[in-house]
Amino acid sequence: MKVPLTSFSGVVLVSRGDETLVSEARGYAHLGYRVENTVGTRFAIASGTKGFTALVVVGLIAEGRLSLGTRARDVLGDDLPLINDAVTIEHLLTHTSGIGDYCDEEADPPPTPLLATSADYLAALDGYPQRSLPGTEFRYNNGAFAVLGLLAERIAGRPFPDLVRERVCEPAGLTDTAFLRSDALPGRTATGYLEDGRTNVFSLPVVGFGDGGIYSSAPDFRKFWPAFLGGRIVPAEWVERMLRPHADGYGLGFWLPWPGAVRLEGGDHGVTFRSTHSGGVTATLISNDHRGGGPLLKQLDEFLTKP
Q1: How many whole angstroms separate alpha carbon 142 and alpha carbon 211?
Q2: CATH number, position 107
Q3: For the chain, how many structural domains are there in total?
Q4: Domain containing residue 174
Q5: Residue 297: CB partners within 8 Å, gap ≥ 6?
Q6: What is the pLDDT of residues 174-207, one digit of tens each?
Q7: Does the predicted TM-score (pTM) go above 0.85?
Q8: Cβ neighbours of residue 87 under 8 Å, at least 6 residues apart?
Q9: CA angle, 242 as apex, 241 and 248 as ends, to 5°?
Q10: By 3-state DSSP, what share of the chain in percent is helix, strand and coil, each rounded to 5?
């Protein structure tokens, strides 16, 4: 496949094992300084973070420190009292918890608070009533994965970014993946841009958490999928469990778009991300402007599913 020369700012990387099939970078990581994107540029990946959160939690389960049936209330204590006492880790991982969502994608988004610490997220999650009984319906829920981040911190006794680094990034060899401050991005990192040309710094949390906001690169996802599927992050029996379909083509933290395929994706203000592994091929698209991937996302799926 070919990447159009216009209407795209970001990276497309497609590989089969050690073979690179497509490797293209377009547009600018920083418009003001005319810094061009490269294949190795780091980008925000929004809800792609949820897969990393699921791996941290499942890793704790594999160690016997949690279970899928652990009730969130048993770890939260008196915090977030509007979460139903019957909500379990499995409900949260599969978007079937029914909890009120502090970042409801079906509603008009409220102004983004200055979220940077676990305490900030705990305060932001409070005050949202339960929307449905646990286990009764699939409803995509950002807040559920922020809650999972809090639970993992409390069980492990470690800051959530450290848990992702130690339990996901290091065993997978991900050197470009980390929670970065959106107002202090280091070199080789793309700034996101809104439709009117402004940066997205006031549209996103200062630092991401369990539901989104980590930064990564396309080459890191080339390494991530073999590490995950090969049992280097969580044991092989848990890899199989995480890829077992639940409601709406979703496993435990991962999308399952068609048989034999697994996907992480995310979108936010000035952020588009999708990485799919299917049939031994990994296809990753990351973009840092409002146009996102556009028809390229469809082309990648057609490429992955062609006979």
Answers
A1: 5
A2: 3.40.710.10
A3: 1
A4: 10-305
A5: 274, 285
A6: 999 999 999 999 999 999 999 999 999 999 999 9
A7: yes
A8: 71, 72, 73, 97, 98, 99, 134
A9: 110
A10: 30, 20, 50
